[in-house]
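Meet my pick.
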Amino acid sequence: MSISADQKSAGPEANPKTANLKIPGNRIDTLRPDAPELAQPGPWDVGVQTLHLMDPWRPDVVNSTSELQFSPRNLTLEVWYPAQLSAGQERGEAYHTVLRDGKTPIVLHGKAVREAQPAAEMFPLVILTHGYPGNRFLMAHLGENLASKGHVVVSIDHTDSTYSDLSVFSSTLYNRPLDQLFVLQEITRLGEQGSLFSNLADTDRVALIGYSMGGYGVLNNLGAGFSDAAVFSPVAPPFELLKQRAHSNPEYPASLDRRIKAAMAIAPWGMNYGLWEQQAFASIQTPLFLMGGTLDEVAGYENGARAIYQNAINTTRHLLTFENANHNVAAPMPAPLEAWADPEDFRHYADPVWDTVRMNNILQHFATAFLALHLKGDQEMAAYLDASFKGFKESGKAGLKLE
């Protein structure tokens, strides 16, 4: 395969993993010719900014041993939003980040424009939340795509859970749902103080989209309280911290934020490890779109996404099944070319059976319809959410099941 000079990445030349490779740009915005209809970008140009938040007083799971410690918790966000470009402003953003190994620099390429002027309208807020490990760029393809369709999309770097700062799993178990709620609260506060979000992000119309551990947090924020077994499990955070978010805690329902109007949980982790009792999902009343692969070895399928779908009996819900897909279903961006030099790095992003770009396009399609219906009230989108697979070419439905 020959690669033209203008395809080469600006990535580091001294990277030993790629010293003998010509690296094309790692695109996050690729559309296959057979992509379903609603995967196409929307009418808006896309701006992007990086934001740093701090929760000043959060239980410090990592350093709490003999007694419970508290410390500030810092979170970095990538924010995509509908933008108005000035004359001569060129589209295209290079996202500088790292590979799964936490140290190999990589550059991702999309269509957004750094620090672009926001559009003069109010748009629903979408919060993206990655897996363990991951980072705020893992679903950058979805962030740019949804922003082009009139959403403000905020993607979180979950401290102790990213490629660069991976720490004890108990911190992720405790902090994941709290990070999601904190970000919603802070975006609201910043909007009231004349920031980027003033007259831009409508925090009364909110959706959560989570992959793997992100999905775990999403489900808890919809009303699926954790089991008592989870509170006392060997991997649980100390001092019974999960009890705050447990189904048996009478104070837990009051913590739910009713501004969350829709949610998507992609290969959500935890049901297969007893983090929930089945009856917990009956408490969910927010419209929910689940995705899973039938061969998911991490989060399970029959005892994972499918079990959640079957037990969330009191809400509008959908389950999209990818036959023979493993855990890396739909959400992760295509494996950067740097990852091809190491099987472990590559497996973190890719699926053994499914093409990642195809899965990304399918997610973009269904997220577009689901969010337009539940955040914008566009009733025409309901036709894209039934088993007819409206918007798909005939061959594009292969391997998919929508319930």
Remarks:
- The two ends are 41 Å apart (CA to CA).
- The chain has seven helices and 14 strands.
